[in-house]
Structure to design on (122 residues):
């Protein structure tokens, strides 16, 4: 009886390998037919239609240009931010030209999040 089971086992094993080989051939073809990329947008309350809002305040307490520091941070994180967070104090005029430019970047428009204080340490 053992001899009868061995050919049946080998037949079943061959079928499993054949099925796996067929699946391996089909998967790359299916991967090529990816659906069109869905555009994510935010509504009036800044709630995203997909994903999350991602942002930071790179260079916030340095003398370096914050827009450039923010773009460097995006490169390091491997992700483009949705929010550009920056700080102002005292009589500094805001938003600055570079802050406005960050919100109007055609490839990666960002939401500008501004903080203002009378003076640091107050």
């Amino acid at each position: 009886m053992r001899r009868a089971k061995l050919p049946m086992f080998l037949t079943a094993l061959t079928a499993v390998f054949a099925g796996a080989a067929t699946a391996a051939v089909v998967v790359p073809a299916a991967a090529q037919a990816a659906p069109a990329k869905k555009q994510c947008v935010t509504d009036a309350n800044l709630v995203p239609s997909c994903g999350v809002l991602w942002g930071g305040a790179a260079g916030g307490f340095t003398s370096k240009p914050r827009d450039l520091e923010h773009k460097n941070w995006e490169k390091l994180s491997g992700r483009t931010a949705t929010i550009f967070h920056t700080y102002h104090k005292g009589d500094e005029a805001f938003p600055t030209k570079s802050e406005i430019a960050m919100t109007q970047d055609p490839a990666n428009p960002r939401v500008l999040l501004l903080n203002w204080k009378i003076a640091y340490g107050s």
